[in-house]
Amino acid sequence: MELKPLKGQHHVSAITANAKENYRFYTKVLGMRLVKKTVNQDDTSVYHLFYADERGNPGTDLTFFEIPNAGRTHKGTNSISTTSLRVPSDEALNYWVKRLEAEGVEHDGVSTESGRGSLAFRDFEGQRLMLVSDELNKGVEGGKPWEKSPVPEEYAIRGLGPVHLTVAKRENTEKILTDLMGYRRKGSYSTKIGEKQFDVNILETGEGGTGAEVHIIERPDLPIERPGRGSVHHVAYRVESEEELKKWVELLNELRIPSSGFVERYYFRSLYFREANGILFELATDGPGFEGDEDFDHLGEKLALPPYFENQRDQIEARLKPLETKE
């Protein structure tokens, strides 16, 4: 079966215990646009918030499930351990140092990772984030920042950068990414964690570049991560079309790899499965996008529900704590 290469990151979905503060941080501090305020389609009692570029182009979405009683994350292996966000240039990183400090956000200062300028920091719940410079990027293009962002366009976040996976057995994860998902090995670099140096392998897909890389570090010395607020739930990779996604469903069935099968998410179509170390992967189509139920100027202002949940709107809204997102 001939499959087209995956196109890079589609979105990353994480966990928050506080939707109100999450909204403030990602829109007011990081300057991303809330393009959709909806619910977790597998548990409609909780919010699902999508932050992205101006219209939620694929490859720009960082999303959060609100789980109010989520405990703290016990960091460890077999996890999506850092989500990186693209900014236009090395100069932008200097802007962000000042901005994060002005907002009281803990960061590690500007450094170089895999040949790119980077700035690691944490949100209010300890979510592990990193800004990476697109100055030398020659691969997948970034998104277009929203013109009403509090961050000037020349410094604004343009989408998702490399996703970092920490695993107990790197070979197992890399085999899934290369042999099944069509990634290719790009290289490696060394990073310091505590007093030790660790090698990080880089895999890429499609056009490559900042928005199409997975960075994998092997840490058999760590316990398995226990997720909670400030952890990542899953990473999704871009599939061109619904037709292509159905080919992936067929392939996983042929290989007897357990999966969700085809899932209708209204804003895109999906397929979920776990790689060999237990990390949840999603394949998601580039469309239809977020403007099927809201126009561009009003994205994220009201609670949006896919048509198949509209008849439950009253019950769903009654279970949710009000969240004001209209400016």
From TrEMBL:
What are the alphabetically sorted keywords of the record?
Answer: Dioxygenase, Oxidoreductase
Gene Ontology terms, MF aspect: dioxygenase activity
Residue ranges constituting the VOC domain according to the UniProt record: 8-134, 159-286
Lineage top rank: taxon: Bacteria
Matching Pfam families:
Glyoxalase
Write down the CDD domains for this protein, in alphabetical order: PcpA_C_like
Q: What is this protein called?
A: Ring-cleaving dioxygenase
Give the species this sequence originates from.
Answer: Bacillus salacetis
